[in-house]
Amino acid sequence: MAKQYRNIGEDVWKNKVEKVNAELFIFTYGSLVVQLVKDYEDYQAVNKQLDKLGYNIGVRLIDDVLSRTSLDKCKDMRETAEVISKVGFRMFLNIAPSVSAWSTDSKEFSLILDDNPLNDFCELPPRAVQDGLWYSNVPMVGLQVKVEFVRDVLRGDDVSEIRVRLEKMLDEEVPVGDD
Amino acid sequence: MASGWTELPDDNEVLEQVYVKLENIGFRVGRRLAERYAPVGRRLTDTLDVVKFVCKDMWMVLFNRQVDNLKTNHRGIYVLQDNKFKWFLRMSSNHGGAAAARRAQPYTWLPCGIIRGVLDSFGVNAVVSPETLGLPQCTFQIKVVANE
Amino acid sequence: MKIHCIAIINRHGNPIYLRNFDNYQEDVKYHYLAHTSCDVIEERLTTKASDLYLGLLQTVGDMVVYGYAMNTGNKIILVMSVPESLVRGAEIRDIFQQIHAAYIAVICNPFNEQRIEDRIESKKFDKAVAELGRIHAK
Hints:
The complex is a heterotrimer of chains A (179), B (148) and C (138).
Chain A: H1 2-16, H2 22-40, H3 43-68, H4 77-93, E1 98-100, E2 108-113, H5 126-130, E3 144-151, E4 160-168
Chain B: H1 12-37, H2 47-63, E1 69-72, E2 77-82, H3 96-104, H4 106-121, E3 124-131, E4 138-147
Antiparallel strand pairs in B: 1-2, 2-4, 3-4
Chain C: E1 3-9, E2 15-20, H1 27-45, E3 53-60, E4 63-69, E5 75-81, H2 89-108, H3 123-135
Antiparallel strand pairs in C: 1-2, 1-5, 3-4, 4-5
Helix pairs in contact in C: 2-3
């Protein structure tokens, strides 16, 4: 199963998506985070904004993934995990985090990012580490799931880890408006 | 939001705030792109060289193409014209040219900031303003305030 | 070839970084060397040199000073001991390129707010420079 998705991901990345300059993307993301830090002056609030932003991007990305591949709706969490890692991440960030640490009820897993391009060049100020900023907090997943960063190399961890937990499956997702 | 369209806020003050933020974000991006992509095999000796660097190298990084036309009065004003501005290519509007151009304006604010940031990195202090007569055409006017 | 000092001077001629690897010399000596070297660089730049690496700027006693000028205006000054054998230009150029790359990384950090007159304050940059000093310790 994993191999099939890996091939789909490779194919989409190579042949079906328009690419933008990686640094332009990274610098724009970084500048956006810093703008939020200036606006909110509170790292927790920034996490929340990034999460919201990520969600709104995520629901659009899912459409994009489905329209560029012949994938059907995922049957279960294991399939979802593979698609997110091998197709989704490959298509938008050209990385494929490994899926691991499944919970016994198969509703929770971790995405391990050995290399997170968003982190390139980034050195967090000590205050940001202390106050718990999750710099790459745009997990971009369009399911009714709880998604959170639990480890980040920028904060001194060995790897970056995103923990994903299914809360409920929804048929239709609508982007939430900014309030 | 409910209509499924993102409308520009009518409130000019809100729009002004959006402008300031996007322009600032662009400025930070421009400062970084300038250092990262500053040529290593040739030297930019004057403002015109720097503006040409924006038209060619930077535009390639940003939009995968070069600007179509560069005009200058040789007294500190440079006008960059892009006839197929990438971020306008998929835009259309039911309200005709002028309204579409108005609605598209915020998309030019980030690049305005980027251009200002690049110029600043080379010691050129400038004001950058956009103008759109009809999509997808777009011009950016650079007005040099001072050279360091 | 020992590196004695690595300095970065901004486009206004003010030092924004200076690392002295020499146990026997005060910083002020290298500030002075960097300053006089900048004059040589300005002179070289008027000849429209296209290369960022400007080669040997001056020899002072048992030390040689090399220069490099970024297109965005900063200059890097490298002070080394006089080599015992023939120096390969490529080696010096490589040191400059590593310093330049480390500088770019500092600027590209999203949290960096550095303006032209600000000193470079970055642990990553310090580490990169210290590493060059370690490799070229004698």
